[in-house]
Design brief:
Pfam families: Clarin-2. By secondary structure, the protein is of the alpha+beta class. It is built from seven helices and five strands, in the order αβαβββαααβαα. It starts with a helix and ends with a helix.
Length: about 230
Amino acid sequence: MPGYLKRTLFAFTAILSFASFILILVSMSTQKWVTGKILCKTGAELVNATDPELVKFMGEIYYGLFGGGKVRQCGLGSRRSRFTIFPHLVKKLNTALHVVIILFLCVAFSFALVSFGFCILNIIKVPYRAIKGPAGIALWNVLAGGFAALAVTSFVAAVKLHNLTERIANFRENVFHFVILDEQYECSFWLCVASSAVHGVNLLLIPISTIHFPALKTKTEEANVTAEDIMY
C-alpha cells in the first residue's frame, strides 16, 4: 500500500481509538445504564390492590456504575430519592463483580489511549521497530476491545444473574419490598458496547495496511541509435 494511503488509514484508526476512549468515559460518568419499573409489593398487598389500582404502587428506577435514583410509590404519592453505589450500597451487591466491571472499563480506556498513541507514532514514522507497524496497533485494539467486552458481559451477568436492579431497589427499605416489573438497558450501556465494536472495526481495517499493491511501471521506449545520431 502506498505511504499516503497507509498514513490515512492509520489516521482513521487513531480517530476511532480516541472515539472509543471518549465513549467509555461518557458511559462511566453517566447514570443511565439501566432503567426499570418497580412495584411496591408490600403496599399493594396491604390494600389488596387490583389491576387498575396497581398504578398507584408503580415507581421507576435508574442507575449506573456509581449511583442512580428511584421514584417509589406505596399508595401515598410518589417520593423521589437518589443514591450512590459507593461506599454503602456496594456492600449489598456482589462487591467483587461490581469493582471488576469498573476496573475492566478503566483498563479498556487506558488501552484505547495506547492504541491511539501507536497510530500517531505510525503516522509520523517513528523509527523503532518495537512500536512500529500494524501488529502493535492490532495488539492494543484487541486488549482494549476485549476488556470493554468483558465489562459489558460482567454487567449483564450482574443484572440478570445477581438481580442487581432488585437489590438496588430494596436498598435501605425496611418496611416495603419492591419487585421489578420491567428493566431495560439505556444509552450509557450501549455506549460501552459501541466502544468495544469500534475496536472490532479497527481490527478489520489494520490488515488492509499490510496489503502490498504491485507497483505500476511505465514502459520506456527503446531508443534506436543510428550512425547519423552518433555523428551529430
